[in-house]
Amino acid sequence: MSDSNADLPALLRGLDDPGWLERPQHYDRGEAAMYFGALAARLEGDFAARCTAEQDTQNSSEYGRVVVPGDATLCGTRIVVCVSKFGSLALVCADNPGAFLGTADAQAEGELDGADLAKVNRALAELGYAVVAEELLESDYDGPSRLPSHVQRPSWWHRFFGIF
User: I need a labelling partner for 145 at 20 to 30 A (CA). Which of 19, 30, 69, 162 fits?
Assistant: First the structure.
């Protein structure tokens, strides 16, 4: 996966297949579980703490989440890593998705340390995940897929991490 910020909108558009909303056509649940397990183990090692992991989310394009507990971070705020079923996309958030206007905002407010963020981003990159900024995912969705009617203002987050 490319980690170039300029390539991320093109990556999202390339993964957007209207025929496959919840998961991509050639989705391999076993492979997703293997990489997700490796991510959880890596973060536990890097932060020397037990991380909670919720995986194989039903009726969602999100595969799962790994949570680094707040007592293992420098600022005391937990770090949540959301993993999509599409293209090894990952989202890194302080506290929860939507709690801040992205990781830069969380850092500016003193809730996310740059060293902790670098650890998470390094683990994701080494495992082949593409980190997508929350700001990009919160932008208006303008792709070809029909998202569920319960979504009031569709965003790219709804497309690749939302519930169907």
Answer: 30
